[in-house]
Specification:
homodimer, 204 residues, alpha/beta, Rossmann fold, five-stranded parallel β-sheet, four-stranded mixed β-sheet, 9 strands, transferase (chains A, B), EC 2.7.4.8 (chains A, B), kinase (chains A, B), GMP kinase activity (chains A, B), Guanylate_kin-like_dom (chains A, B)
């Protein structure tokens, strides 16, 4: 019997740098978990590649997949759908591999309901002011969009309660190190190890 | 108001390599926790230094400290007392520094009762056979002492239930890395961060 993999969920306010942290983690050679690529109806940003950063879909395609129950979670956010294809997640966990999701907070809430044992990490901005700077600096969004994002972010920070861990994104390298530590620590949790370990001792 | 430090307790069966792991951790430059030196009535092994490895005390001195309530925990183990001076631990935690204890399992149980929020890490042998090898290889103990140790170890492994985390001591470097990850992860736990973080946001 293969022990199931761990579902790792990285989420947090829009603009906090979830994508950057995720990319940094998966650029490291020793990363031992699998990235579940999200699906979205928003337009690709410069440099984003279909099937790498996201699966880019039309609104019609996305709504069809919702109907078919093919999404573990989905959310409409600033006018676009974001979601996680369910089959890949379940199959990979069954193989005993850890799966890493980088998703919006609305989606994380849905995943928590379906996977209460998942590992939920909230990526937090050093401050809301800092968060605003980052969104403005990105420079690709209108002022109205920025205001909407800020209001959404304030609400999202209130959602921290849902998570097991909070990682402040001051420096991306440190944030990545903390995420890796959290995953490694979680694999050492007594409840997870105990059963396997005691069985090993019985065999002798 | 200073946030209290974290009490980290590393324990596990005799002979599993607690001392080696502890020394490796404290030889690393980036270790940010304070080591609480244990007190014992056993004779120093070769190379052990009073006030560095242990505070070596006579039986009479030790029993006097027990009477005065100066020990956070103590245990009699294979005919010798082992214990943790309480004042150093409390003062260091109050300063907001993490304190690291490396103690026997009997002692860890007592600490758990007094510090239920502590971080309890069980250092586990890859197998009981491997444990026996290590005790024999150490080569400084009689056969009877080894048998006693093995029986004690089997009983101690049953005590894993008391701990938050289990780290298998296959390779000392990996065990150290895991202990460090566990401490870093624990500092990111939502319950710990949340209060401080929400206050920070209110200030703006």
């Amino acid at each position: 019997m293969i022990e199931k993999g761990l579902l790792i969920v990285l989420s947090g306010p829009s603009g906090v740098g979830k994508g950057t942290v995720r990319k940094e983690i998966f650029s490291q050679e020793n990363t031992r978990f699998e990235y579940s690529i999200s699906m979205t109806t928003r337009a690709p940003r410069e440099g984003e590649v279909d099937g790498v950063d996201y699966f880019f879909k039309s609104r019609e395609e996305f709504e069809e997949l919702i109907k078919q129950g093919k999404l573990l979670e989905y959310a409409e956010y600033v006018g676009n759908y974001y979601g996680t294809p369910v089959d890949y997640v379940r199959e990979t966990l069954e193989k005993g591999r850890d799966v890493f999701l980088e998703i919006e907070v609305q989606g994380a809430k849905q995943v928590r309901e379906k996977f209460p044992d998942g590992l939920f990490i909230f990526l937090a901005p050093p401050s809301l002011g800092e968060l605003q700077n980052r969104i403005v600096t990105r420079g690709t969004e209108s002022e109205e969009l920025i205001r909407n994002r800020m209001n959404a972010a304030k609400a999202e920070i209130e959602m921290m309660d849902l998570y097991d861990y909070v990682v402040e994104n001051n420096k991306v390298e440190i944030a990545c190190e903390k995420v890796n530590s959290i995953v490694q620590a979680e694999h050492c949790r007594r409840e997870r190890v105990e059963k396997r370990y005691k069985k090993m001792l019985e065999v002798e």
